[in-house]
């Protein structure tokens, strides 16, 4: 599996210069998927973790013969493109992927990158409709991407930030001991939107809770979070609300432990990528995380699903599986088969109606804004072996006990998207 690395581009709005090759491919030729992610730098671990998820999903489709089309079955082929966590590098990777014949672009880590890709893919498809590409987003959760910035060529398979925060609030609002919160996030569109929505939802659902801190920090550039943790402790906050992810979350919770902060963490991503091990025993009963699925969802189907992933990737540090990424690849395969072609436009039209299930989990794409609708769960960190915690995370000895399940209808939020669909 090759990793593509390209230099930065001139501007995001620059045209995508492509060779003049026909889009038609021979029967049996692979359907090319391009994963554009950080594979080097501060967030390289997040890119590698995503790759394992997508690889496993692609392998599952290929093991059953690939996608079935009238001219014969075609396998899925997944290629990796390193964007170094940068928007301009991502557009460079997009150009390279299209040059290489990819029709489906997969990205999620960073809403800033996602916004750049939404714009670039839209411009490219308008300029060159014979070489269209579709952008599938599994983790970039800025609500704007399926609201005012929605695009026909973009489909999001993760719950957006407002949906995730609403799920966390289902648990937070019942915490009657909670009297004060500290809000902290990464200083870009996603982190800003989380803090803004946290203020709004706290005022609506827990007006008695005082916000004693509200700050943003540079994305991926802080190596020492001790000054931030010291401010959090000094504020007297009973809890922290954060959308931080990757090393920005791991280093934050580690610093909080070092300064002796004993409040709760209400997180979007506190259930993986080193966070449970970093906070350790101090997180038991205190770290809360929201997800589309957790390994300790108490069903036999879910347990078999998780066991199969651990068999495929047995190293403890590779323990990072997300149901939504599996459902995304299943939805794409289903849509290609229903369209009877891998051509982007008919596949996109089929994907608008996609409804998929796997291991007892299910979801459906909402055509109005291309926001996937699915069950959400909230879990609380506890020791492995405690009731409801059969599985730990990354060999840490700590896992997440499911304390709240939100059905699809409970997790859904309205949209302001005014979708513009292509004429042809």
UniProtKB/TrEMBL annotation:
Domain Leucine-binding protein: 30-385
Residues annotated as signal peptide: 1-24
Cited InterPro entries: BCAA_transport, Leu-bd, Peripla_BP_I
Domain of life: Bacteria
Transmembrane segments: none
UniProt keyword annotations, A-Z: Signal
SUPFAM superfamilies assigned: Periplasmic binding protein-like I
Family: Belongs to the leucine-binding protein family.
The protein's name in its UniProt record: Branched-chain amino acid ABC transporter substrate-binding protein
Species: Ramlibacter humi
